[in-house]
Design goal:
Rossmann fold, Arc Repressor Mutant, subunit A, nine-stranded mixed beta sheet, two-stranded antiparallel sheet, 15 helices
Length: 365
C-alpha cells in the first residue's frame, strides 16, 4: 500500500485530531498490527479507538474506492514532507499533519494575505473587502479567507476579479459549507484558485472546527487583514492567532457607533496596524509587491547585486531549518525572502527544500 493511501487511512482514523495524527505518523510501526499493542498505544498516546479504526480502514475494502472518488473529484492530500507543503505552516506551534487540497497547489507557497471579518457585514464593509482583495490580488498577492458568508465571500470574489484566492474550509472534502457558497467554491477552483482543509472526508462542519481552520488562514498568510468585526467576532481569533504566529495584523477603523467596528478598534488598541487604504499594506510588503508584478519579465541576465540570502545556499537542497541556522533570520523574514527569490527566479523548490538556480536556468520571458 502506498504512502498516500496510508496517510488517508490515518487521517480518517484520527477524525480530524491533528495532534494524534502527528504522533502516529512520527512513530508508525512497520507492522500495522503493532498499533493495537498496549505498549505502543501508551508510548504514542494513541486512542485505542483510533488504532482500531485505522486497521479497519487498512484491512477493509472501502479505502481504495474512497481514494479514487477523491481523486476523481480533484482532491489530493499532502504530508509535511511534500515539496509543495506550505513552508509558513512549519513555523506555527500546531501545524496540521495533512492537507487536503483541490485546485492550484502552487498557491500554497505564494505570498498570501488573509482578509477576514464579520459574517453579517455592512454594505460598506463588503465593498471594502472586495476593493481591497481586488487591489491586493492585482499586485500579485494571493487572497486567503474562510469561504464564510459576509467579508470572507466578498474577499474571495474581489480577488477573483484580478488574481488568485485560497479558501480554507472548516470541514472535510466534499460539498462546501455554507451551501450558499458552493458555486463560489467551484468558481475559485475554475479560476485557478485553491480549496484547502486539514479535515478528512466525512467530517461535516462543527463549531470547534472553525478555530482550527482560522489558525491555518493566518498561518498560511504573511498578514491578516480584519474588515469589520464585532466585539466577540471569530475574526478576532484569527487576528490573535496571526499575532501569536509572528505575522502582521491590520485592522480597519470605523464609526464608534457601529457595533461592527468594536472588534477592529480593540485590535488597534492592542497594536494592530492601522488600515485606511491598500497603500498601507502594499508599503509594508513593497519588495514582494514589486517582484510579484515582475514575474513575467525574467531575463537571463544576472542581477546587478546578489541577494544577501543566496550566500547561505550550498549545492543541492537547502531546507528552512538549515537556512535559518546559517542566516540567523526569523522564520517569517526567511519565508518572505525565499518568496522573493522564488518569484525573481533565483531559487527553485526541490525535494527537501530550495536550490539556487543558475543564470542560464532562469525561465525565458
Amino acid at each position: 500500500m502506498d504512502s498516500d493511501t496510508v496517510l488517508l487511512a490515518a487521517s480518517l482514523a484520527c477524525g480530524g485530531n491533528s495532534d494524534e495524527l502527528h504522533r502516529w505518523l512520527h512513530q508508525q510501526p512497520a507492522d500495522p498490527n503493532i498499533l493495537l499493542h498496549p505498549q505502543h498505544l501508551t508510548a504514542c498516546r494513541i486512542r485505542q479507538q483510533s488504532a482500531e479504526r485505522l486497521l479497519e480502514w487498512l484491512d477493509g475494502d472501502q479505502l481504495q474506492p474512497l481514494s479514487r472518488q477523491l481523486n476523481e473529484a480533484g482532491w489530493q492530500w499532502l504530508a509535511p514532507e511534500h515539496t509543495q507543503w506550505p513552508v509558513l505552516l512549519n513555523d506555527i506551534d500546531d501545524p496540521p499533519a495533512v492537507l487536503f487540497v483541490r485546485g492550484n497547489r502552487t498557491l500554497l507557497n505564494s505570498p498570501q494575505l488573509a482578509i477576514v471579518g464579520a459574517r453579517h457585514a455592512s454594505t460598506e464593509g463588503l465593498d471594502n473587502a472586495r476593493r481591497f482583495a481586488r487591489a491586493l490580488a492585482a499586485s500579485g498577492f494571493t487572497i486567503t479567507s474562510g469561504l464564510a458568508l459576509g467579508i470572507d465571500g466578498a474577499a474571495h470574489r474581489g480577488a477573483l476579479q484580478s488574481g488568485k484566492t485560497v479558501a480554507v474550509l472548516g470541514h472535510g472534502p466534499g460539498p462546501c459549507y455554507p451551501s450558499r457558497h458552493r458555486p463560489l467554491a467551484e468558481q475559485i477552483v475554475d479560476h485557478d484558485g485553491l480549496l484547502v482543509t486539514e479535515f478528512p472526508p466525512g467530517l461535516t462542519p462543527r463549531r470547534e472546527f472553525f478555530p482550527q481552520r482560522n489558525r491555518l488562514i493566518s498561518g498560511l498568510s504573511l498578514a491578516t487583514i480584519v474588515i469589520e468585526a464585532a466585539e466577540h467576532s471569530g475574526s478576532l481569533i484569527t487576528a490573535r492567532l496571526a499575532s501569536q504566529q509572528g505575522r502582521e495584523v491590520f485592522a480597519m477603523p470605523g464609526s464608534i457607533h457601529n457595533p461592527l467596528s468594536k472588534g477592529c478598534h480593540r485590535l488597534l488598541r492592542d497594536g494592530a496596524n492601522w488600515l485606511e487604504s491598500e497603500a498601507d499594506i502594499l508599503s509594508a510588503f513593497s519588495s514582494l509587491t514589486a517582484l510579484a508584478q515582475s514575474t513575467t519579465h525574467h531575463t537571463d541576465e544576472a542581477p546587478a547585486t546578489e541577494h544577501p540570502l543566496l550566500q547561505f545556499f550550498i549545492s543541492g537542497a537547502n531546507n528552512m531549518d538549515q537556512l535559518q541556522e546559517r542566516s540567523g533570520l526569523a522564520v517569517q523574514t526567511l519565508a518572505q525572502q525565499l518568496s522573493e527569490l522564488e518569484l525573481n527566479g533565483s531559487v527553485v523548490r526541490v525535494a527537501g527544500g530550495y536550490a539556487r538556480r543558475r543564470h542560464h536556468e532562469h525561465r525565458q520571458p
